[in-house]
Amino acid sequence: MTVYHPTLAAGRWRSFSLMEQLAHVGSEVERAIAWAEKSNFAYSRTAVERALELLHLTIEDARNASRLKELTRVREALLDYFLGDNEYRSTAEGWRKYFFAFARAAALMKQSP
After folding, report:
1. Who is most buried in 54, 71, 76, 111, counting CB within 10 A?
2. For residues 86 and 49, what is the distance between their CA atoms, to the nearest angstrom?
3. What values do phi and psi take at 112, rounded to 5?
């Protein structure tokens, strides 16, 4: 398996809060959606792989143990949406809304003293 984020995988990922981690995952999901909408499925697939790598690092982060059920469900639904039959009937808009909340929370956390 290709490692797309070697410095993050080496431990830097754990310096981010859960909100920041999921905001970064969401950035890759947004890229995957955007490339799919442009019918560039090779680029979309690579963005999905990057998102899954970051999500895997998030799941492995012991600080997120209480969120394990949600994180593994997100992984399952992402795989279903991008690589499966979309049995959960996910939508691009739904993914955008889900991850936008984390991006907003991360930005607000950086603004607070």
Report:
1. 54
2. 17
3. -75, 145
- DSSP string covering 84-108: S--TT---HHHHHHHHHHHHHHHHH
- Pick the closest to residue 79 from 99, 60, 55 (CA basis): 55
> Between 1 and 98, where is the model more confident?
98
Closest CA to 21 of 54, 48, 52: 54
Alpha-carbon torsion, ordered 71, 11, 106, 98, to 10 deg: -20
Encode pLDDT of 21-61 as tens digits. Answer: 999 999 999 999 999 999 999 999 999 999 999 999 999 99
Task: Tell whether pTM > 0.90.
Answer: yes
